[in-house]
């Protein structure tokens, strides 16, 4: 048969090099990955046989065989599952069709610290490629169910691979590793030792639903013959794993280590999960679920191409990976398994979207995940802080998309506030600290904490001792516009509408002074509104400023400038919205401008001062000038005149 030599996809080649020559320490995990791949192939064959009655395959004895040849130093993992065609081999083995690969490689190269590099590697499931950590050469022989021709693939992991069609091969896939010499210093063990392979299977793959078979080891022979392990009878095999579905076992019978290994199996993650959610539902319809919250966010958490969802089984028959209808998009980081008892085996993603039982399961799973996070918040703040740091931005998307669970999401939401410069606060904690008589939850949005903390909008709130939430995530701009209140307290932006923090007594005491100022500044305000009419809709006196001369605010129901910019970035044209310029009536610059206006000084010079007041207000809140060059020119002229 003709043998072709092809090159790996560029990213696959880079990843192979990094894996073989990197600081990877736990090389044992290669066996778990290969057994997981074999298990997936058996799941897919069983499902295909149920759906396609014309597929002539024998599913009576689906299993995984492990074969060791100590003389040839080979380790083979064989399954009689779905197998692959030649095109499948090229597409699945010759490339890495997983989103986030390029970003993963870039971050790995940019990371100088060895420990941090390990963490990055742990964020990416390498699957089949892990073979090259322990093997000098890998041979793959596979025949797809229902096809007559087989495919042999072989590579040393150095950038190219060979592929050829062969006439005869058993159905399924055999991966043969030509093992490297053992190197204890590099933690590369001798995987030709049956006891070592058994140990790894029990440790990492005991829960696999299919039998993993190995030749039976005979009792040790005498030491005088120099043997330390038993002779092997090729015809006798034994099942090494227990094959118990972890989600079907009672919680008190499952060790934490078993949960952790199962999580690594379904997520292809190298780290332990942050939280484990094990539930069983009984009643009109039954299902079992074993869900995990990871301890770190995947690199593609905010990628459109990222896959989401959990594995779906029906009566322990694998149906599909990444079952999106079971998990909303804002919980896309949740991993695990759901095993339903009453669903049809012949389901598609489209029919699942409409299935009433699936919708009921989804609602229950979402409530359980959110309640588990709330339990972390009350019982283990360190783990909750980790959760919110990694997944908080994604969870807040649910405030827009999941109205039914909005209150539950608000209960677990943490944000920065003026109460503490370092720690985040929950909305519940904010409400508990509110002043007597305070009716609103005050917040301000912006690009960074440092910018909005120094914004003029904060001055009156700081002077009065009111706590303000500091919202800096892009998603915050959206949800605070859509969520009206929390625990009966309405959200109020300190950069919108009128702000009056005075008590009734303070208002009465200052009423006369306020009326007098209105009269004194009426001419200035009217003139500035006309002068700046291209940029602002109104100029008025401010009750929120104590030290700054001016600030710009939005009307109560207007779109914020940041949100306006976000819409434009998404290609949505929105009309330019004029804002309101507020003046501090006690600031010397403002009072001086009023006096100059009353004296009838040069209107052109005063107009420049008014323009500078507006530009200063924009810059103070972190905004952008429409014409920075003109602002600098006017400022230079006014400074020159003042000298």
TrEMBL record:
<comment type="subunit">
    <text>Homodimer.</text>
</comment>
<dbReference type="GO" id="GO:0005737">
    <property type="term" value="C:cytoplasm"/>
</dbReference>
<feature type="region of interest" description="A; substrate-binding">
    <location>
        <begin position="1"/>
        <end position="349"/>
    </location>
</feature>
<comment type="similarity">
    <text>Belongs to the heat shock protein 90 family.</text>
</comment>
<keyword id="KW-0346">Stress response</keyword>
<keyword id="KW-0963">Cytoplasm</keyword>
<feature type="domain" description="Histidine kinase/HSP90-like ATPase">
    <location>
        <begin position="26"/>
        <end position="183"/>
    </location>
</feature>
<dbReference type="Pfam" id="PF13589">
    <property type="entry name" value="HATPase_c_3"/>
</dbReference>
<feature type="binding site">
    <location>
        <position position="84"/>
    </location>
    <ligand>
        <name>ATP</name>
    </ligand>
</feature>
<protein>
    <recommendedName>
        <fullName>Chaperone protein HtpG</fullName>
    </recommendedName>
</protein>
<dbReference type="InterPro" id="IPR036890">
    <property type="entry name" value="HATPase_C_sf"/>
</dbReference>
<feature type="region of interest" description="C">
    <location>
        <begin position="566"/>
        <end position="643"/>
    </location>
</feature>
<feature type="binding site">
    <location>
        <position position="349"/>
    </location>
    <ligand>
        <name>ATP</name>
    </ligand>
</feature>
<comment type="function">
    <text>Molecular chaperone. Has ATPase activity.</text>
</comment>
<keyword id="KW-0067">ATP-binding</keyword>
<feature type="binding site">
    <location>
        <begin position="99"/>
        <end position="100"/>
    </location>
    <ligand>
        <name>ATP</name>
    </ligand>
</feature>
<feature type="binding site">
    <location>
        <position position="33"/>
    </location>
    <ligand>
        <name>ATP</name>
    </ligand>
</feature>
<dbReference type="Pfam" id="PF00183">
    <property type="entry name" value="HSP90"/>
</dbReference>
<dbReference type="InterPro" id="IPR020575">
    <property type="entry name" value="Hsp90_N"/>
</dbReference>
<dbReference type="InterPro" id="IPR001404">
    <property type="entry name" value="Hsp90_fam"/>
</dbReference>
<dbReference type="GO" id="GO:0005524">
    <property type="term" value="F:ATP binding"/>
</dbReference>
<feature type="binding site">
    <location>
        <position position="98"/>
    </location>
    <ligand>
        <name>ATP</name>
    </ligand>
</feature>
<keyword id="KW-0547">Nucleotide-binding</keyword>
<feature type="binding site">
    <location>
        <begin position="123"/>
        <end position="128"/>
    </location>
    <ligand>
        <name>ATP</name>
    </ligand>
</feature>
<dbReference type="GO" id="GO:0140662">
    <property type="term" value="F:ATP-dependent protein folding chaperone"/>
</dbReference>
<feature type="binding site">
    <location>
        <position position="79"/>
    </location>
    <ligand>
        <name>ATP</name>
    </ligand>
</feature>
<dbReference type="GO" id="GO:0051082">
    <property type="term" value="F:unfolded protein binding"/>
</dbReference>
<dbReference type="InterPro" id="IPR003594">
    <property type="entry name" value="HATPase_dom"/>
</dbReference>
<dbReference type="GO" id="GO:0016887">
    <property type="term" value="F:ATP hydrolysis activity"/>
</dbReference>
<feature type="binding site">
    <location>
        <position position="37"/>
    </location>
    <ligand>
        <name>ATP</name>
    </ligand>
</feature>
<dbReference type="InterPro" id="IPR037196">
    <property type="entry name" value="HSP90_C"/>
</dbReference>
<feature type="region of interest" description="B">
    <location>
        <begin position="350"/>
        <end position="565"/>
    </location>
</feature>
<dbReference type="InterPro" id="IPR020568">
    <property type="entry name" value="Ribosomal_Su5_D2-typ_SF"/>
</dbReference>
<feature type="binding site">
    <location>
        <position position="173"/>
    </location>
    <ligand>
        <name>ATP</name>
    </ligand>
</feature>
<keyword id="KW-0143">Chaperone</keyword>
């Amino acid at each position: 048969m003709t043998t072709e030599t092809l090159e790996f996809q560029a990213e696959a080649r880079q990843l192979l090099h990094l894996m073989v020559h990197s600081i990877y320490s736990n090389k044992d995990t290669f066996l778990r990955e290969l057994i997981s791949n074999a298990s997936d192939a058996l799941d897919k064959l069983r499902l295909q046989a149920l759906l396609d009655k014309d597929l002539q395959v024998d599913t009576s004895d689906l299993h995984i065989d492990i074969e060791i040849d100590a003389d040839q130093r080979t380790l083979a993992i064989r399954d009689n599952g779905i197998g692959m065609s030649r095109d499948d081999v090229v597409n699945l083995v010759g490339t890495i069709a997983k989103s986030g690969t390029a970003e993963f490689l870039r971050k790995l190269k940019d990371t100088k610290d060895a420990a941090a590099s390990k963490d990055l590697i742990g964020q990416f499931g390498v699957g089949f490629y892990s073979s090259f950590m322990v093997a000098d050469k890998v041979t793959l022989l596979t025949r797809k169910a229902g096809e007559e021709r087989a495919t042999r693939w072989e590579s040393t992991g150095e950038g190219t691979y060979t592929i050829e069609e062969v006439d005869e091969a058993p159905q399924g896939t055999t991966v043969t590793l030509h093992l490297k010499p053992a190197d204890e210093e590099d933690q590369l063990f001798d995987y030709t030792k049956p006891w070592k392979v058994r140990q790894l299977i029990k440790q990492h793959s005991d829960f696999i639903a299919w039998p993993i078979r190995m030749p039976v080891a005979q009792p040790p022979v005498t030491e005088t013959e120099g043997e330390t392990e038993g002779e092997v009878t090729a015809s006798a095999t034994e099942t090494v794993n227990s094959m118990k579905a972890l989600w079907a076992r009672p919680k008190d019978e499952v060790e934490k280590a078993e949960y952790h290994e199962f999580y690594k199996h379904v997520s292809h993650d190298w780290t332990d999960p942050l939280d484990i959610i094990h539930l069983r539902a009984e009643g009109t319809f039954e299902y079992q679920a074993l869900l995990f919250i990871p301890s770190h966010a995947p690199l593609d958490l905010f990628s459109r191409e990222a896959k989401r969802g959990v594995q779906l089984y029906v009566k322990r028959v694998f149906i599909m990976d990444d079952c999106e209808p079971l998990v909303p998009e804002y919980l896309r980081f949740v991993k695990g398994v759901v095993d339903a008892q009453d669903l049809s085996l012949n389901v598609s993603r489209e029919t699942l979207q409409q299935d009433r039982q699936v919708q009921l399961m989804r609602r229950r799973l979402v409530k359980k995940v959110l309640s588990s996070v709330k339990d972390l918040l009350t019982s283990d703040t360190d783990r909750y802080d980790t959760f919110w740091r990694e997944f908080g931005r994604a969870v807040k998307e649910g405030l827009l998309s999941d109205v039914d669970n909005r209150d539950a999401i608000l209960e677990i939401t943490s944000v920065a506030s003026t109460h503490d410069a370092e720690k985040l606060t929950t909305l519940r904690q904010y409400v508990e600290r509110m002043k007597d008589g305070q009716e609103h939850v005050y917040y301000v949005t912006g690009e960074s904490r440092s910018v909005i903390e120094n914004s003029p909008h904060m001055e009156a709130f700081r002077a009065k001792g009111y706590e303000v939430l500091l919202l800096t995530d892009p998603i915050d701009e959206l949800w605070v516009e859509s969520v009206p209140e929390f625990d009966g307290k309405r959200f109020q932006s300190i950069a919108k509408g009128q702000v009056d923090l005075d008590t009734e007594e303070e208002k009465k005491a200052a009423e006369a002074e306020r009326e007098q100022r209105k009269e004194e500044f009426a001419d200035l305000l009217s003139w500035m509104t006309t002068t700046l009419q291209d940029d602002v809709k109104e100029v008025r006196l401010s009750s929120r400023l104590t030290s700054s001369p001016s600030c710009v605010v939005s009307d109560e129901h207007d779109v914020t400038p940041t949100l306006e910019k976000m819409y434009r970035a998404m290609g949505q044209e929105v009309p330019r919205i004029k804002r309101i310029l507020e003046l501090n009536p006690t600031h010397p610059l403002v009072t001086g401008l009023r006096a100059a206006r009353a004296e009838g000084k040069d209107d052109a010079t005063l107009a420049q001062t008014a323009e500078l007041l507006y530009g200063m207000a924009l810059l103070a809140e972190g905004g952008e000038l429409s014409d920075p060059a003109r602002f600098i020119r006017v400022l230079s002229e006014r400074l020159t005149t003042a000298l």
